[in-house]
Amino acid sequence: MALIETFHLSHLPSSYAVHAALYRDVQNASFLRQQLLSGNTEFEYAFLDATSIISTMHALAAAFRATNDFMNNRLRSRNVHSETVFCLSPNNNIADSFRRFGVNDTTTNLLVIKICTGGEITTDGVRTHLSRAVDGAAVPFIDESLRSMTDLAKIKKIYKIGTSNNVGSAGKRNKSDISPTGSQMVLNGNQAELKERKELEVAILGLMALRGAT
Amino acid sequence: MAAATDNPPADITENLPDLPPSTLLPPLFNNTNPPPELLTQGAEALLYRTTYLVPSIPCALKHRPSKPYRHPILDARLTKQRILAEARVLAKCRREGVNVPAVYALDWEKGWLLMEWIEGGTVRSILDRWLHSTPVGVDASKRESELKDLMSRVGQTVGELHRAGVVHGDLTTSNLMLKPVSTADDTLASSHEEEGKQHQEQREQHLQGEVVVIDFGLAMQSVQDEDRAVDLYVLERAFGSTHPRAENLFQEVLRAYGESFKGAKVVLRRLEDVRMRGRKKSMIG
Amino acid sequence: MIAIGLEGSANKLGVGLIRHPPKGGPAQILANIRHTYNSPPGEGFLPKDTAKHHRSWVVNLVKQALKEAGVSAADVDCICYTKGPGMGAPLQSAAIAARMLSLLWDKPLVGVNHCVGHIEMGREITGANNPVVLYVSGGNTQVIAYAEQRYRIFGEALDIAVGNCLDRFARTLEIPNDPAPGYNIEQLAKKGKHLLDLPYTVKGMDCSFSGILASIDVLAAQLKANPNQTDALTGEPITAADLCFSLQETVFAMLVEITERAMAHVGSNQVLVVGGVGCNERLQEMMGLMAKDRGGSVYATDERFCIDNGIMIAHAGLLAYRTGCQTALNDSTCTQRYRTDEVLVKWRD
């Protein structure tokens, strides 16, 4: 049974809902992709490869921008779902964004996003359809689930972060623990790793926000 | 013989049409419940507190409204240019490891920017409190060293900012915040748990935390010594006018700045020239 | 008390007579006359020719002013003249005349700062008590606010004055200089409607105009070479009127912006616009829209007072004289650079 998390994202009209469902061990990725490509209207979702997603906020941020652009008649792609995939991208290449973030034939970790603007589709409706359509193990749409799926190296490569002069935030944070009065906590290894992940996340959000600015 | 004040000219605003105020929220945020809370209203932009995506993530909303007096094409161009410039500078700073709010979302056509909410108070309010009295639980000598340490961190942070190739343009103690140290957080959603009472007390006794630079509305990307020196000069004048007893503390800011990056000492020498020139080229009236 | 004022810092020679009633009350304008030296279209006015013009007209204007006012030399308490800032030779011409009158009539001299003259006359005429002042003319562009006996400069043009920018563009277009090049630009701009892309240069509280002048000159040259250019947005033909329109919209937006910043900084909602460019109706309108949005007010004087004139020198001079200031003959020099904030405004607290 699908586990649907439904969000009414801040600032979007109350009739707008963003539904998210996360799956492990998906067996029918190619089938789902095929439905998308053939434009099957029952399959109007954003199907994302979860290994490219660093956190729940990462995905929701994309949904938010896509919806805002939709509300302002600024879609660069076909619909708000394809736009959600595109909004994850750091650049304007739509085809690339599908390759990097969209479901591909070998996807086993799948994040599904459904954006409803009119309130006609309910959480139950989404749950029913996805339970039928996706052949995989539903897991809660929370950061812990995503953490085990994320391919950090791939993400860093996509967003071009984590090279020598970019988010070397571990190096930066260390400065704070040589302060003479020891007014900063010294960060242990695990905390440093978590900090680095957070810096990566905000860097990604910044890139997504600035995408397309000329 | 006419009195100078015979038939004084009318107030020009009286003959102008009524237009909607420029202080309205961007349309998207009219749906928001609870509505964004107005924090400051400057000549350029309005700053609100609201949430990003979910109620548990607080954020700041900066809105550059349309100006009624500008030609609409010029207005759109300037609004877009400025909000974009600010977002870019913030993202660049953050990428280089400078403590600034993170950029969450942006709509340059509508002139708004959502960014990370920075908890804590301004360095200005801290100096106001700490310079006029010693807080409970802190003895006087400790107070001096805590303040000095804070100044050192201010100098270091400004140095990091300049090293990243950015000049702030409006460095005052109101644009520097002290963000309390929080426990480890990995993603945005978990970074704003309620602080324990222990942390609260600690914060009031010690000036622990990270110095965060905010309000990059006048910032620009520059590596010129002149621009960097003017940045320091503005901060120095701000210190002088709002915290007159803190002048020796400012020396600590400059000392730490001088050691924060290669080339910082050259900027300090340039600062002497800027001081002599006085008002021209700087912003404080 | 009665003062006579001589103004000649640029191409306008003005003579004014003012009376400050003994028991206070509004100042009385006894005479305010002016003669302008206009160069032919396409040319600016040169210091040498301007000074010659002032020298030939000053005696005439002084006599006429006295006659209009119905006063004699004996009635005058002091002789005020523009000490600066301005152009050297023209300033000198008026100063020499002032010194001559001082010796002839045996009356004290008072050297006056031209900008302070504009400010004080503006305050008197409009009744605006403590406004942020935008002083814009061919030679000056400053945003000023009063604090602790000084007119402090909050923002200014870093290179050339806005009026200078407009005047030079008038020369580029070879528009007549009579009655004033800026006035003719204004009239032409009213017929324009396409906003062309021009550099917008506000930096903090300051602004600069040489960049935009260079750009608009290029556009004018392009238009002259190819009169059939069309606007990218509408496809309609571009005219010189559109150039004037675009220039005004852009430079005035810059001025309104730095004025608004100063207002926010000092916490004031009143604006006073003085100086020749202050006569421009579009600038007044834009300033008004900004102030109205903030719930404030904007005051400007008409061409009798916003354009350089003698009465403002007489007024500011008399205010200073009444606090005990005067300028000894040996010190009655002129200076091309004289910052507004150098003057100690003893007549205000």
From TrEMBL, chain A:
Cell compartment(s), UniProt: Nucleus
Cell inner membrane is among the record's keywords: no
GO cellular component: cytosol; EKC/KEOPS complex; nucleus
Family the UniProt entry places it in: Belongs to the CGI121/TPRKB family.
GO terms for biological process, alphabetical: tRNA threonylcarbamoyladenosine modification
Name of the protein: EKC/KEOPS complex subunit CGI121
Record carries keyword Nucleus: yes
UniProt entry keywords in alphabetical sequence: Nucleus, tRNA processing
Pfam family, one: CGI-121
Function description: Component of the EKC/KEOPS complex that is required for the formation of a threonylcarbamoyl group on adenosine at position 37 (t(6)A37) in tRNAs that read codons beginning with adenine. The complex is probably involved in the transfer of the threonylcarbamoyl moiety of threonylcarbamoyl-AMP (TC-AMP) to the N6 group of A37. CGI121 acts as an allosteric effector that regulates the t(6)A activity of the complex. The EKC/KEOPS complex also promotes both telomere uncapping and telomere elongation. The complex is required for efficient recruitment of transcriptional coactivators.
Coiled coil: none
UniProtKB/TrEMBL annotation, chain B:
UniProt-listed SUPFAM superfamilies: Protein kinase-like (PK-like)
A GO molecular-function descriptor: ATP binding
Free-text function comment from the UniProt entry: Component of the EKC/KEOPS complex that is required for the formation of a threonylcarbamoyl group on adenosine at position 37 (t(6)A37) in tRNAs that read codons beginning with adenine. The complex is probably involved in the transfer of the threonylcarbamoyl moiety of threonylcarbamoyl-AMP (TC-AMP) to the N6 group of A37. BUD32 has ATPase activity in the context of the EKC/KEOPS complex and likely plays a supporting role to the catalytic subunit KAE1. The EKC/KEOPS complex also promotes both telomere uncapping and telomere elongation.
Keywords: Activator, ATP-binding, Chromosome, Cytoplasm, Hydrolase, Kinase, Nucleotide-binding, Nucleus, Phosphoprotein, Serine/threonine-protein kinase, Telomere, Transcription, Transcription regulation, Transferase, tRNA processing
Entry keyword Nucleus: yes
Organism for this UniProt entry: Xylona heveae (strain CBS 132557 / TC161)
Basic and acidic residues compositional bias, start-end: 191-204
Taxonomic lineage of the native organism: Eukaryota, Fungi, Dikarya, Ascomycota, Pezizomycotina
Protein name: EKC/KEOPS complex subunit BUD32
UniProt domain Protein kinase: residue ranges: 33-285
Automatic annotation (TrEMBL), chain C:
Residues involved in a divalent metal cation binding: H114, H118, Y135, D308
EC numbers on record: 2.3.1.234
UniProt domain Gcp-like: residue ranges: 29-314
Xref: SUPFAM superfamilies: Actin-like ATPase domain (SSF53067)
Localisation per UniProt entry: Cytoplasm; Nucleus
Keyword tags: Acyltransferase, Cytoplasm, Hydrolase, Metal-binding, Nucleus, Protease, Transferase, tRNA processing
Residues that, per the record, bind substrate: Y135, V136, S137, G138, G139, D167, G182, E186, N280
GO molecular function: chromatin DNA binding; metal ion binding; nucleotidase activity; peptidase activity; tRNA N(6)-L-threonylcarbamoyladenine synthase activity
Cofactors named for this entry: a divalent metal cation
Cited NCBIfam families: arch_KAE1, gcp_kae1
UniProt-listed HAMAP family: Kae1
Family, as annotated: Belongs to the KAE1 / TsaD family.
Record-given protein name: N(6)-L-threonylcarbamoyladenine synthase
Organism: Xylona heveae (strain CBS 132557 / TC161)
Lineage: Eukaryota, Fungi, Dikarya, Ascomycota, Pezizomycotina
